[in-house]
Amino acid sequence: MIIELNQKQMDEMRIKIFKALADPTRIEILRYLKKVNREITCGEIGKVVKMSKSAGSYHFKLLREAGLINSRKESREKYVSLNENTFVKYINNFLESL
């Protein structure tokens, strides 16, 4: 069953997306995810972007809530990857600009 979002819901989602994209650290996270093109641990990204675990949790939460990343937890590790569907649906061609 496919559920169509009404215009208000689409606008609310776009607001979340643009708020998530309005930070250089989150752009750097997305750029790294695009570069590696695979699912990786939050810790690996934290080392590359040079941020603490608490800062990483904050940034990953905003990106996840905006639908820009997928995340899953396995044991004690959290894995993330780009959610390309959101980019295609709401901000087409943005990934190519990273």
From TrEMBL:
InterPro entries, per the entry: ArsR-like_HTH, HTH_ArsR_DNA-bd_dom, HTH_MetalResp_TranReg, WH-like_DNA-bd_sf, WH_DNA-bd_sf
UniProt-recorded Gene Ontology molecular function terms: DNA binding; DNA-binding transcription factor activity
SUPFAM superfamilies to which the protein is assigned, alphabetical: Winged helix' DNA-binding domain
Pfam families cross-referenced by the UniProt entry: HTH_20
Keywords: DNA-binding, Transcription, Transcription regulation
HTH arsR-type domain residues: 6-98
The organism's place on the tree of life at top rank: Bacteria
Family matches, as NCBIfam families: HTH_metalloreg
UniProt-recorded name of the protein: Transcriptional regulator, ArsR family
Lineage: Bacteria, Bacillati, Bacillota, Bacilli, Lactobacillales
